[in-house]
Amino acid sequence: MRGVLAGLVIALIIVAVALLVATLGALGVAFIGSLLHRWFDLTQWQGSLIALAVSLGVGFIAYRLASYQEPREPQWLDWDDLDDESQETQDGAANEPPIPAWRARRPTQGELPSDRPPQKGSRRK
Question: What is the pTM for the complete model shown?
């Protein structure tokens, strides 16, 4: 029971701090909007909207800078090795997929036709 109450108290403290920070942020945006209203020919609503857009942009840039990761070194392909492999496959037999094990063990039914074309005068049965 104490663990549940302690968790609730911690959650309430976190919510209170978040509300305080949000209130201070909103008051800051409204204050800057008021300053823009006095300095320029804007309504306070327009000044607050501009201040809100600028603060969101600054927050986004700060987030991107805080979450920056070092770029990884690209793994470059060695084109010479690839050319050598393609030459070997062109010189040798055609690339055929390997015969699966279940197909290699399967018995052949009947006699397979020969690869040679039939000769003149010969009959096939």
Answer: 0.47
Handedness of CA 62, 35, 41, 49 (dihedral sign): positive
For residue 49, which of 39, 60, 36, 61 has the smallest C-alpha distance? 36
For 14-30, b/e burial (b = at least 16 CB within 10 A) is eeeeeeeeeeeeeeebb
Q: Which two tokens stand for residue 79?
A: 């084109």
In terms of Cβ atoms closer than 10 Å to its own Cβ (0-12, 13-18, 19+), residue 33 is buried
100 pLDDT more than 70: yes
Decide if pLDDT at 87 tops 60: no
The type of residue at 84 is D
